[in-house]
Design brief:
Blueprint: H1 3-26, E1 36-41, H2 45-59, E2 63-68, H3 70-80, E3 84-86, H4 90-98, E4 102-111, E5 113-118, E6 138-141, H5 146-157, H6 161-164, E7 168-172, H7 175-183, E8 189-193, H8 194-197, E9 203-206, H9 209-212, E10 216-223, H10 229-240, H11 245-251, E11 268-274, H12 278-292, E12 295-301, H13 303-311, E13 318-320, H14 324-328, E14 338-350, E15 370-373, H15 379-390, E16 401-405, H16 408-416, E17 422-426, H17 427-431, H18 436-439, E18 440-443, E19 451-458, H19 465-474, H20 478-486, E20 490-491
Parallel strand pairs: 1-2, 1-3, 6-7, 6-8, 11-12, 11-13, 15-16, 15-17
Antiparallel strand pairs: 3-10, 4-10, 5-8, 5-9, 13-19, 14-17, 14-18, 14-19, 14-20
């Protein structure tokens, strides 16, 4: 082999091996192996540096922290990219999400602004009114920083800005900078977050009512630019979890929300759902599992059956009910539910409607083979029974009811087997499979009682309330809405 050709072959082999190692490092199962880039408010530097250190030690993943003012970091995200964003104010999260740059977010800590003075408070400053004193030297955050934007705004709302402004001798891009001004004696007072001031032994923090009634929530969000959303979510969960990052924040004097998930590398939860919701949410649940790196055990049954299971002691992390009446039966075990969709009860008949069934009154026709759901086992059955009773038809159709089943899709199966001539089902039952309407058609009832609303609720006893919030959001976002509406559901989420 000629020497140039030999060199080329060796070089090609080397490059191929290097590429294989890169792919090997990035592939595999689990949350991912690549580095993470976190854009973090400077005021959260100390706890986040410690959390990143612990995370790297536990999982071997490098977490690169980019510190700065919340606003300045947020304005750079479109260009800078990255995996996560942790500003000191939820407003920045909402703003970035509105631009399409952020997906999920998880609450981290609550921050309260107040007066920061030198140890011993030599100027005797105790209120915002004191900031108007002539000759006082004040350091404030720039408006690109969360604390700056907030404090300037509050001073304006309290009618103090014009009198305080002449005493502002310096502004800084981060909260750390203005606290350091006080610690070094450069100024007499600043306005800063409680937890940040607590990191400096040379200063004191003084609460004032104008700020304590307006606490701010810091949340960590996963950026749409992340190339490994699963790993980014893994770190976000670690940052906020009990037994992991939450304890770091608490130990450094931060106020953290009472809610919060326990730590698990791969959380496992159970979702109870009415069977009529299965076609709309089953695939979405599987997608959520993949993105979150968790396991969602789904139990699809008639809501009467699900309520009976809960009354026997089985407690899910979440409940997506077929109707609000069935959440009400177990409401003491759940936080308030959010109505997501509505669904109508319709009459399914054979193609061409050979029996001439046009409404509830026609269901009493002699010889009709009718199917309904059992009122003890499903929301559909209970709502059907209530409707028939209030319209004076319950007793008149008894002889025509050939079957009572637990779920609407069981009635559809019976119609497809041609053992029934008509069935009272949800519209979504009829639209769940294209085959159904090839041999059958829908007769509208136009009855205000023929309507159910589907709420999603989170169990009070779940160790993963934040994960369940994200699951609820995933099952009710824009893509989920399109799926629901394609199945005949009406959108009810406000």
């Amino acid at each position: 082999m000629k020497r140039p050709l030999l060199v080329f072959v060796v070089l090609l082999s080397f490059l191929g091996g290097a590429f294989w190692w890169m792919v090997r490092d990035q592939g595999g199962n689990g949350a991912g192996k690549g580095d993470l880039l976190v854009h973090c408010a400077a005021g959260l530097r100390k706890p986040m540096a410690e959390i990143a250190r612990r995370y790297e030690k536990e999982f071997g993943v490098k977490v690169n922290l980019q510190f700065g003012g919340s606003g300045a970091l947020g304005s750079q995200l479109q260009v800078a990219g990255g995996d996560l964003y942790l500003p000191a104010d939820q407003g920045y999260i909402d703003s970035v999400r509105a631009k399409g740059l952020l997906e999920e977010s998880i609450p981290v800590a609550r921050l309260t602004a107040g007066l920061v003075v030198p140890k011993g408070n030599p100027e005797g400053i105790t209120s915002l009114d004191d900031l108007k004193r002539e000759g006082l030297k004040i350091s404030l955050g720039e408006k690109s920083a969360s604390v700056g934007k907030f404090t300037w705004s509050v001073l304006g709302k309290e009618g103090l800005l014009d009198e305080v402004k002449p005493n502002v001798v310096v502004t800084k891009p981060t909260v750390n900078g203005i606290v350091e001004d006080v610690a070094t004696g450069a100024v007499d007072v600043s306005l800063a977050w409680d937890a940040v001031a607590g990191n400096y032994s040379e200063v004191e923090w003084i609460a004032v009512p104008e700020f304590t009634k307006r606490t701010k929530l810091a949340s960590i969000g996963v950026l749409t630019s992340s190339k490994d959303a699963k790993r980014a979510l893994h770190f976000a969960r670690y940052t906020t979890a009990k037994g992991r990052g939450r304890e770091v924040f608490l130990g450094m004097g931060f106020d953290v929300p009472n809610e919060g998930d326990v730590w698990s590398d791969r959380p496992e939860v159970t979702l109870f759902s009415g069977s009529m919701l299965r076609p709309a949410i089953q695939e979405r649940v599987r997608e959520f599992e993949e993105r979150e790196g968790c396991r969602v055990n789904t139990v699809f049954e008639g809501c009467g059956t699900l309520v009976a299971q809960m009354n026997s002691g089985v407690m899910p992390s979440g409940y997506f009910a077929c109707d609000t009446k069935f959440l009400a039966k177990v409401q003491d075990r759940f936080f308030a539910g959010t109505v997501v969709t509505g669904n109508e009860i319709v009459l399914l008949v054979r193609k061409g409607n050979p029996m001439g069934l046009l409404g509830l009154k026609d269901l009493a026709k002699p010889g009709l083979k009718l199917g309904v759901c059992d009122s003890r086992k499903s929301a559909l059955g209970e709502l059907t029974q209530i409707m028939l009773e209030r319209r004076g038809m319950a007793d008149k159709i008894v002889g025509n009811v050939l079957v009572k089943v637990a779920k609407g899709d069981d009635l559809v199966s019976a119609m497809q087997a041609r053992s029934l001539e008509a069935a009272l089902i949800y519209r979504s039952n009829a639209l769940a499979s294209p085959v159904t309407l090839e041999e059958h058609e829908i007769v509208e009832l136009h009855d205000e009682l023929a309507f159910a609303e589907q709420p999603y609720a989170i169990g009070k006893g779940t160790p993963y309330p934040e994960l369940m919030k994200r699951l609820g959001a995933y099952l009710s976002n824009g893509e989920a809405r399109m799926r629901f509406e394609s199945l005949g559901f009406r959108w009810r989420l406000k």
